[in-house]
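Readers of this paper often ask what the protein records in our data store actually look like. The remainder of this section carries one protein's record, kept here as part of the documentation.

:::
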Amino acid sequence: MARITRVLLVGAALALVVAGTPAASAGGGSKRTVIVFNGEGNNLNAYEAKPPFEKQTVITNHNDDPDGLDINAQICFFPKGAPGPEKGERWFIAGEDTGQPDPPPGWGIFQLKGTEVGKLSAEQVGKLTPTYQPTEDNSENYGCGFLSDGRVVTTDIGNQAAGDSTGQLIVWFPPFDSRDVAYCKLDVAIGTAGQIYVDDQDRIYVASALRETAGVLRYTGPFPTSNDAEGGCGQTDTTGAPLADAVERELFIAAGENGLSTPNAVIGKPGGGLYVDSVITGVINEYDEAGGFVRTILAPPAGEVLGEQTFSTGTPLGLGVDSKGTLYYADIGITITPEAIGPGAEGTVRRIRFVDSEPQPPELMGGGLAFPDGIGVLEVKKKG
């Protein structure tokens, strides 16, 4: 799909990257390589996470390749030991909406082959497709994440700029290598739902850009273990789909202060705490583990106003952070004209390194991008 609605006005977000530079391991016998996977123009691109940021298109969009797929949304790699991948296999989730609305959008399950940019390939092995709440926009897949036992969680956006809060949070149960995967909905009333982060206590954080839920929502388990009453999923929603009997939700960080107008993405930072962004204000903030504001990591230069030109520092939509602490963001290139508010064709992928804990000016990884809206991070250790 041409992601016209991914304009999301002031309201949406998609996840981005993780990256860094190769580094010797503590044992001195291996090197760490990070690859950044970015959904852009309905392609799946991969970048080396070090200058000159070599790029490969791993999956080509369906318009340019009849055998291709339309890829978007947050991209998540299955953790080690998760149900699904056999030993030596590497699986990931990415938004996949080829041919929608028939078939409807969902999240493709893919097996990745290769460990170097330029030598990567991916094969689809399954798809997660739920029912969606009625929206004034097209149904849009979005966030992804994993609970510690390998259950998958996803968000879809719901209404974007207008209408009721119809974004959803869903938990999915293995096996995942099919197109008929069981699920249970945890929430069906999120205002423009965005990126997902799951902490080490299995608490689920969801960015909500608009309406009464605007901010970062936190969900605390236990969560359903199956899609029936025995597993804690004995209700149904208006579409007839399985719905959790109960869920604990709190507004963990409220929107509105410190430039956080439309929270679009949330990601955990090494050592504890969170990063949260707002695409319409071009801000990335840091928060502590209790949700308290710590500092602003990125903001447009003083005097810059969003208009026919986007902010020089970008409009961060999706966020990611690598194990060394480098922060990455997908800049969707929001502009405001008399005709519309939305992304142009000058999106970017950028990174922010830290020196003595202080954020450095953002560095360009890729530019001139169309709707860079989703991401994944892969860290590979190689001998030598």
